[in-house]
Amino acid sequence: MHRSGSIRLHRQTRQQRALAVHAQVLAGAVRRSEGAALRIERAGTDLEEIEIQLLLEGIRLCYGYDFREYALSPLRRGLTAAMAREGVQTVSAYQDRILHDAACMQRFLGTVGFNVTGMFRDPELMRCVREEIVPLLRTYPSSRVWVAGCATGEEVYALAVLLDEAGVLNKTSIYATDMNDDTLTVARVGSYPLDRVRRYEDAYAASGGQANLADHYSIAGRTARTASCTTASSVAGFWPSASASPFSTVLIGTITSRCGTV
């Protein structure tokens, strides 16, 4: 081979080696950059989780509400909405405000608390109560039923309708609780938009309803008010927490989807 050709081949080989080295260096830099970004993201996530844990522990110690077993994803979404409403940027700043401002705590409950409910919202559950629980309640001279997480009360009144149709309402006391005072106020009144209540008819039928849901409420304008037979005589009351006395049946209506394990 001519000497000039050898020189060109040597230069090309050296250039290719240099390019390979540069590629390796670049790849290593990219990996280090990605690793650093991942560590930063993970550190940020870990820090936020620590802040959330401290917030929940502070709420438990200060107010008595225990959210520590809530699933993290829905809790984080609720916290994000609550923090935006309060105009704070970090969970730590929100913790400072919530521990020193009871009104802020109430707003937190309204945002993070699970208030979505409806009459016969879970028809399969209500059918199970009708077919499996009611026969057991018939064996007791009287029964106490606790509905935890009752929100605005629709599921409580649905249960009263079910027990009334089963013939055991007259010897059953229903106790309903929720951590949110605002939703309890709505529940105690027992009045709901008429158009919303009418949409519960299909769920009522799917739960094994024996008549028409309209038989169990009165109409005043655009409002449906639960009938007296499903209120004063059966729903013993709505409270923030239940008594320590034993219950025949415990139903957890709106809060199970918020729990990590049930």
Fourth-level CATH superfamily of the domain at 123-255: Vaccinia Virus protein VP39
Strand share of the residues? 5-15%
Distance between the termini: 81 Å
- Helix/strand/pairing class, anyone? alpha/beta
Walk me through the structure:
This protein has 262 residues and is α/β, with parallel strands linked by helices. The protein has a domain at 123-255: Vaccinia Virus protein VP39 (Rossmann fold). It has nine helices and seven strands; from the N terminus they run αααααβαβαβααββββ. The chain has a four-stranded parallel β-sheet with strand order 6-2-1-7. Strands 3-5-4 form a three-stranded antiparallel β-sheet. Helix 1 (3-63) packs parallel to helix 3 (91-100), helix 2 crosses helix 4 (102-112) and helix 3 crosses helix 4. It starts with a helix and ends in a 10-residue tail after the last strand.
Primary descriptors:
262 residues, alpha/beta, Rossmann fold, three-stranded antiparallel beta sheet, 7 strands, elongated, disordered N terminus
Itemize the secondary structure elements and their pairings:
Layout: H1 3-63, H2 72-86, H3 91-100, H4 102-112, H5 123-137, E1 143-148, H6 154-166, E2 172-177, H7 181-189, E3 191-193, H8 194-198, H9 201-206, E4 217-220, E5 223-226, E6 235-239, E7 249-252
Parallel strand pairs: 1-2, 1-7, 2-6
Antiparallel strand pairs: 3-5, 4-5
Helix pairs in contact: 1-3, 2-4, 3-4
